[in-house]
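Anyone? Bumping this.
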Amino acid sequence: MKIQRCKGMRDLSPSEMAAFRHVEGICRDCFLKWGYQEVRTPTIEYLHLFTSAGTLTPGMLGKVYSFLDWDGWSGERVVLRPDGTIPVARLYTESLQDKGLARLFYAANVFRFEEAGEKPRERWQCGAELIGAESPIVGAELITLSLEALKKLGLKDVELRLSHAGLIKALLEKLGLSSEEQHRTFDLILDGDATALAEVGRESPELERLLRPLLSLKGQTAVFLRNQRTLFTSNMPEIIPPLDDFLETVALLDNLGIKYRINIASGAGFEYYTGVIFQFFIGGEKVGGGGRYDALIPSMGGGDVPASGFALYLDNIIGLVKPETLAGKSQARVLVKAADVDTIKEVFKVANTLRQAGYIAEIDLDGQGKGIDRILEVRQKEPVFTLIDSRKSTRSGFNTMTDVLKSLEANRAD
Amino acid sequence: MPIKLALPKGRLLRRTAAMFQKADWGIDDYHSRTGFYRPRSQRFPDLLLRVFHEKDIPIQVAMGNYDLGICCLDWIEELLVKYPGSDIVRVQDLTYGRGTLYAASAAPPEELFTNGTHLRIASEYPNLAESFALRKRLSRFSIFPVWGAAEVYPPENADVVLLAAGDGSELADYGMVPAGRVLDFSAYLIANRDSWKSREHDNIVTSVCETVTGGDKKSSESRDMSPAGIPRRFNITKASPEAVRMALPDGHQQQPAVALLQRAGIEIDDYPSETSNRRPKINIPGVSVKVIRPQDMPQQVASGNFDLALTGRDWLNEHLAQFPSSPVEELVDLKLAKVRMVSVVSQELAVDDTAGLRRFAMENEEPLRIASEYVNIADKYARDNHLGHYRVIPTWGATEAFLPEDADLLIENTETGRTIARHNLKIIDTLFESTGCIIGNKNNKNDKRKTKIIKDIVKRLGDAIEVPE
């Protein structure tokens, strides 16, 4: 019988885990400093939390791990959490609503089926949600926070792409599609089909003249959007409110000196977005994204609460972070060894003293402490402690732990 | 290794046999009702034929146990919609066995699909039902996978059903309207993807294709899903919500059930029904009856769709193995139709008990393959007996045909053990004895009026039990 891990699942080795904690730790630090508080939601949620119209696209729902729980005789299914934002919105609706404005963050795994098993089916993300505020500053805060975290991770050349879910929806309405088709095209765009919007635009020449520049995939600038706005004022007044909302965020980013690219026809897989959508790419790889989702909490019965959020994709980021950034300062290690059988109690005590002094102290088990340069031998006779530094090939004897610590401290730098 | 072809029992048997007769395959025994599942073809003597329940065929072909298979598209899609990477190639539309899979409801669909309503969907096609619900953007729904008789569930026990029908006119017979056309289907010749890439099937496939395309178009286009010749417009009056809702079994459990009900002085009009009437009348006021599959009864009672049901302990245990905290309980053992639930291996296997089975499972490189209609009992049995790395292959009957090639172990029920012996199989363990029983819902106890009626029925049936010698 061959033992192996499940297809599409991933182990993290000690070094990968150290890299993971490093990346997660930097994200946590940033989030905490901006006033976000950490939350954790369960791995299993009800399926219906994710099926309401305006939450996940059918493309995403088709990849959800759903099953009947041990008490699922009513036929109601549960899922392995396919997304980080919706459970946090659920948590807010269920138990934090009286708090009003909430800045929350999480580090969580999400599960989505990937057919070939080559892409991971379990992914980690670190995300922040800002719930209860309508101000356009929210978008700017979340984008700045994401960029700050990515910068602290030593990542360069982060490309920020902007779109607007409200604007996409308004455009689709103008294209004269049935509501079913609008829904389908919106989902295609959100699932990453960047040509979907351009396809439907081809049908009407008049609309095409007005919309084509908006739908085209390149060359969209804030100035361009402002100029286009004047055209729409008379022809398509419905487009104006979402466009103005978008321009407001864009103006703030300009003010803050943040560089971005506008690409209306690019979505982000989540149907719950209602306003600005932002995505981060490094060398063509998506490392995070987010946006405004004002309709999600109302759809859960949580009242008229606006919200925005984003997530950074830890698996992708870990692959991009340079090893030297990850190395960091590692704590000094000491192997504590009983030279006589009778000193084992003393060994445990000494190891504890070392740990309290800030060292990693491992207890020797039959001489297996490979790769540790400092060995502290403990014996009953004097000198009670012998400190061996194998790199310098030195042996020094001590009779008190105070002296041992002094010697270790003197050599700590190397 | 011979090419292996899986042939369907049931609704496609007659037309498939006719096709092979026309193609001059000279197949004996395909028609036989003696439970013989290994026919041979005179024209292709090297071809290994095996007869399965139609629903098992896509799974068997996808797993690579069979190179080729014949089954309808509805069962292929039921597999593919949940497991899109399944290794199935659709080779040829055989043009017979046509039908349509409808979503149907008793209420007008526009009233049903308003966002936020909790909808109960009953179907033999739970995967297609889930996909339908997701595409319809239903926010809250429950799927009741049923073994059959989905048409009798609405309006009291389900809001929507996914149902195979001919042209849809049958839906009106059941008092339903179509709420969506899910899939048009017909019989298909399918192949395993790897086998299709690497093995030569051309003489077999050519023979089938020539027969199909040279066939009589007119007759093959007629829809032949619903059994003909029976007037089927049923009188459907919605049961009162206060009634005690009782479920009686269809199939082979009917005869002993009827005899017992008669001895208890409980008269049920038109049961068993020659016209497949699934809503017979009972002579107890305040009680309504529906006829459904015994397999589906425990979950129906658990979810509060029925208050009591006459089923087998095998299906009750299957339900409890899946849902240990279910509120379903056995109210009275009717001592009807006694069978044993047994674990079975091939006579050629040097395994005589569970300890031997455990050794076999440990020494085997490949995972132990357990075929059963009772997937949750089989799963629990494998867990309880530490059978290591195992897989449960769900089947829909004719499970004996799986050994020894396509499974290592069966969990089966048997009355006399004769069928098992006839297939060169042996019993190595008895899990439990199963008899017919009445089941109810523990949570019903708060309703005094219902409890009184239920107690009365249980007592009358209990008093009428004939204890076998």
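Late reply, but here is one note on the structure posted above: The radius of gyration of chain B is 23 Å.
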